[in-house]
Design a protein that fits this description.
Elements lengths: L2 E12 L5 E9 L5 E5 L2 E10 L2 E12 L2 E10 L4 E6 L1
Antiparallel strand pairs: 1-2, 1-7, 2-3, 4-5, 5-6, 6-7
């Protein structure tokens, strides 16, 4: 997997305690168009503290361009931002 660290827009549902669960996200392609990717499976999630920022890392798997690929998205708890970290 290659590190890309791009901000993304995510549709997610949240538990009562505030834990997010990603459903799908919008990714900007090279030709300035957006591609919507449905999260088929969350393989694991873990908490991480990076430079003082608490984050939840999701390793997910989806079919992207007819190929099943694994990727990592991060949710920053302090700012409520999502990042496509590795793909």
């Amino acid at each position: 997997m290659k590190i890309v660290a791009k901000p993304i827009q995510v549709v997610a549902w949240f538990e009562e305690n505030g834990t997010p669960h990603p459903v799908k996200f919008k990714l900007s392609a090279e030709d300035e168009q957006f591609k919507v990717i449905k999260v088929d499976r969350v393989l694991f999630k873990e908490k991480e503290k990076l430079a003082g920022n608490s984050m939840i890392i999701f390793r997910c798997q989806s079919v992207i361009d007819e190929v099943e690929r694994a990727y990592e998205i991060k949710y920053e708890l302090g700012t409520c931002k999502w990042i496509l970290y590795k793909i």
